[in-house]
Structure formats: C-alpha cells, structure tokens
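Q: Hand in one record:
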Amino acid sequence: MKTTTTKTSTKEQEIGNNNKQESITSTPGSRRWKALALLSLAQFLIIMDTSIIGVAIPGIQQQFGFSQSELQWIFSAYVIVFGALLLLGGRLSDIIGQRKIFVIGFAILTAASVLAGLAPSGTILIAARALQGIGAALIAPSALSIVMSLFTIPAERNKAMGFWGAAAPAGGTAGVFLGGIITAYVDWSWVFLVNVPVGIAVLALTWKLLPHGTRHKGRVDYVGAVSITGALILLVYGIVTANDSGWNSLQTVSLLLTSTGLLGAFVMIQKRSREPLMPLRIFKTSNLLASNVVMALLGAAWIPMWFFLNLYLQQIQGIRTI
C-alpha cells in the first residue's frame, strides 16, 4: 500500500513538472518571437541607460552644481549597482520566478526614472540612478533566463540569442545620439523620463507574452551580495576622491583597504556557501575564465569612454548641444 502511494505521489510530481515545463516550451511560435522582441527591448533599454546621459551631463552639472568628482556618480551609481547586483538578480529569478522578478525590475526602473527626471536635488538624482541600477540588475538575468527557456531547439536558440545579444550594443549606441537629440531639443530630464512610457508598455505586455517561468528551491546569499556591492562602491569612491584627499591620506587608504577586505570576504563566503551567488569552480574552465577577463577589460575601456568623451568634447573642445 505504501509502495503504491509513493509511486502515485512520484507520478503526480513528474506530471506537475512536465506541465510546468510545457507552459514554457509549448508556447506558440509567433508568441515566442513576440516575447523575444519584448525581452530584447528590455535589454536595449537597460544598456541605453548607461550611455544616454552623456550629452546631458554638463546641463545636469550646471543645474545642481556638481563638482567634477561628484559628477561621475550620476554615471557610476547606475553601472556599479547594476553590475554588483546581477548575481543576486539571477538567483532571485531562479527562486521567485523569472517573470515576477522581470516585472519587479521594470517597476523599479520605471519609478526610479520618474524620480530621476523630476529630482529636486543632486543627491536624489544619484539615489534614483542607483535605484535604476537595482531595476536593471533584476531585469537582465531574468530576461536571459526566459529567453533560454523559450527556445530549447539549438538552431532556434542560437538565432534568438543573436537577436537578444545584439540589443545590448544597439542600446549603447542609440543612447549616445538619443541623449544628444533629447538634450538639444527637449530637456536633459527626458533622458530619464523617456524610460517611463517604454516601461509602462513593457509591463502591460509582459502578462500577455511572457510565461510564468520555473521556480527552484534554495536560499539567497544576501550577505555575499552586500559584500561585493560594498566592495565595488568603496573601491570607486576611494579612487575618485583620492585626487582631492591624496593617495596616501587616511581616507583613501582606509577606503581601499575596506574594499579589499569586503572583496576577500565575498570570496570566502562563496567558498563556504552551499548555494553561492558565484560558484568559484566556474573559473577552473579556461575558456570561461578567458572570456570573462576579455569582457571585463572591454567594459572597463568601453563604458567609461562614453562619460569622458562627452566631457572632453563639451568642456575641452567647446562643442555644445543646440
């Protein structure tokens, strides 16, 4: 009798898992490609937000009276939080569900864009940019996970990943000239507010086009997420303020040492955790390690270029928007 009950329970569980998987893989073809278009738009938007503020930076500086060292936080607040919380965003999407995290991320990004566009002070603007980074960190990994689950046939998956991957550089490139057009003909606040109608449209279409996704049991390594985020923020802050306070000053040395300590703590946490945000064994794969190093170097050169090139053209060469 026990054996029969166990077999029945196991069979029911298998049917439930199969039904859950079918809700993704059996999505009609046309709907899957529409979902891909929506997810690609999301990727386009969050990368565009790294470059669209470039031309607007002098106007923002003039309105809020930012110093040169403070000015870079309008840019860095977004990219640091975005990059540091990507691991946490991916883990949350696995446990809570990809679509839920995608929706939460877009809600945060849209609300933060309103706050940034209407910010009454520089401090609130920087805080809003950090909130945008939180939203982006939830959107990117959940969107990628949905793409991977929607397209299981290798040929289709390769094609889908090509479209989704192309959305990122397209967004970065589009942000440069869109930021210039918006700043020249409207107002710098619209480099943030332009996200709002797009965000509302994405949220409205999400429930119709995107599947629920799958959920996995597990724990979230919040301590690891806090340690790596703190390490990156203190590292950037220490380097940025070093020119004013001095590289040998107590402030700079203490910030850099604290950042190093937090980074070391993050590594130790990942080693000891049963469910780490970043399993360190992945770095034993030579191809993966090499590709990560290349992407890190590319990001370190490419993303800051948008910030400094705009300052150079406008403040050194005197080229201004209309």
Observations:
- The domain at 31-213 is CATH 1.20.1250.20 (Growth Hormone; Chain: A;).
